Backbone:
């Protein structure tokens, strides 16, 4: 009897979406007891959140391919795939998440590992058809699976244990849109003093302590946090 796995793709690049589907087809062709059924493809955070809510009301979904650089929601509440990953863990705790990202920065990888704890973690520069097929097979049987760049970051045992949380990312996002610090307590449930403290800490993390806020935003964008 075939085991049917449902999957959802959250990815805004059609070629990457196609590569996931090709890899699933390759795995299925090698394993007569496996079958994959597509739930849908979401190209931004709005579409993804709607799809997540929809499958949560039905039978759920087995595998979710999650792009970290997915465009943010129209209301600015879901900034990236990282925020979506946190929501998926809450709404669909039984779903397996396969994260993909173009960013290979050690700190970025470490942060995603801590916030989402994905069942699969792929840096896109590592990907080829064989790696994707191996990742899918591994995640179905005995997760996790990490691509080569992710494994290198883990092995280096990064010294810092700082994690940039949802409020930090929201603050960076709002500042990048031109918001003033004094206005942020209206959109983030923290006092101005607490937000200023977080900003100082973020500047330390990104090594821009004595620089203007725009350098903090540039560093955060460079590392893929906004």
Residues:
């Amino acid at each position: 009897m075939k085991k049917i796995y449902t999957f959802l793709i959250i990815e805004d690049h059609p070629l990457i979406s196609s590569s996931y589907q090709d890899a699933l087809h390759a795995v299925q062709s090698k394993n007569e007891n496996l079958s994959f059924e597509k739930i849908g493809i979401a190209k931004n955070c709005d579409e993804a959140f709607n799809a997540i809510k929809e499958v949560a009301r039905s039978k759920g979904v087995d595998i979710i391919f999650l792009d970290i650089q997915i465009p943010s929601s129209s209301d600015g509440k879901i900034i990236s795939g990282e925020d979506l990953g946190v929501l998926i863990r809450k709404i669909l705790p039984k779903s397996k998440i396969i994260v993909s990202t173009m960013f290979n920065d050690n700190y970025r990888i470490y942060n995603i590992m801590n916030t989402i704890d994905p069942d699969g973690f792929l840096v896109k520069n590592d990907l080829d058809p064989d790696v994707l097929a191996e990742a899918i097979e591994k995640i179905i049987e005995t997760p996790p699976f990490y691509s080569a760049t992710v494994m290198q970051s883990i092995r280096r045992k990064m010294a810092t244990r700082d994690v940039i949380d949802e409020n930090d990312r929201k603050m960076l996002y709002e500042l990048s849109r031109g918001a003033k610090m004094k206005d942020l307590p209206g959109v983030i449930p923290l006092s101005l003093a607490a937000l200023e403290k977080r900003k100082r800490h973020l500047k330390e993390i990104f090594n821009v302590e004595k620089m203007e806020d725009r350098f903090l935003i540039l560093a955060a964008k460079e590392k893929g946090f906004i």
User: Anything to note?
Assistant: The longest helix spans residues 14-30. The chain is about 45% helix and 15% strand. The first strand starts at residue 3 and ends at 10. The mean pLDDT is 89.
